[in-house]
Amino acid sequence: MTFGLALALACALATSVSFLFKQRGAVAAPPVRARHPLGSAAELFRSKWFTVGLLVAVGAWGLHVGALALAPLSVVQAVLAAGLVFLAVLAERFFGFRLGRRQWTGLIITAVGLAIIGITQGAQPSDPPGYALAALISIEAGVLLVATGVALMAGRIRVLQAREGLLLGAAAGALFGISDIALKFLTGAVGDGVLELISPWTFAALAASIIAFYTSARSLQIGPGVEVIALTSVAANLIAIVGGVLIFRDSIGSGALAITGRMIAFGLVIAGAALIPAPLRVAGAHGKPAEAAATTIGPSN
Q: Is 6 exposed, middle or buried (0-12, 13-18, 19+ CB in 10 A)?
């Protein structure tokens, strides 16, 4: 399992780099339009930085698949929490972003919470524990429908408009999470033959990934970069960790102390994620709340 965790750590670094490259390219591309998916994709690929970011993301995806094949899903996703720290350091040092104290606090609390979830992972049984089909169907279908619905409605409901980019980022993360769950299932199924890849879960992984591609690109165009990337990562991690426990029966701990620690860790993740977005100001002249300038994450001039 150690090699799987090393792959997950490398994936965390590559994922942060890919998101930062894609954000730089997405803001330079024309707006993503749901009614023109092929044209929107073509415009994104014309952006050099977005294409570079996507290529790095493909490499990260390969590392992720390798990690999922060698380690429990919830442990892999907890290790990927390191990506939040990588994200903050890389964003400030190489991509011209400036993070306020509130955002640093939120990122660190979230990363610590996710890391505790991995550290308190109980010992795994020697034989594969299998999976819960009912939970697999429920989580995949439920999250796919809800996340897609949020992505479609985010810009149309006034109360959601002020946070549209953040909502789209969270929706994209949830979609990436259920894609990871489907991939974890497929890495186990492929042991029975390549034909096992002809599966509804292959379709689920592809559908979630395609919708997430457009949702994530749009979120990077209209939302504050590091906040959007962080919330995308947190949502993906949480969905995949919950999926690991409920679907693949990953252990939630080997004793009262470990179980309590994991519950506290989940609370830390939620509290940290709540700190990452900058606070809203009072509504402006056009009736839309504005981000507080003192703490907004954005590229420096």
A: middle
Whether 6 and 55 have beta carbons less than 8 Å apart is answered as: no
Distance CA 148, CA 140 (A): 12
Tell me whether residue 292 is in a domain: no
Report the C-alpha dihedral over residues 154, 160, 165, 168, rounded to 10 degrees: -40
Each residue's pLDDT tens digit, 170-209: 999 999 999 989 988 888 777 666 666 778 888 999 999 9
pLDDT value of position 296: 39
What does the alpha-carbon distance between residue 154 and residue 147 come to, in Å, rounded to a whole number?
A: 10
Identify which has the larger pLDDT, 256 or 153: 153
In a domain, 121, yes or no: yes
Boundaries of domain holding 249: 2-280
Q: Model's pTM, two decimal places?
A: 0.81
Closest CA to 298 of 13, 22, 4, 23: 23
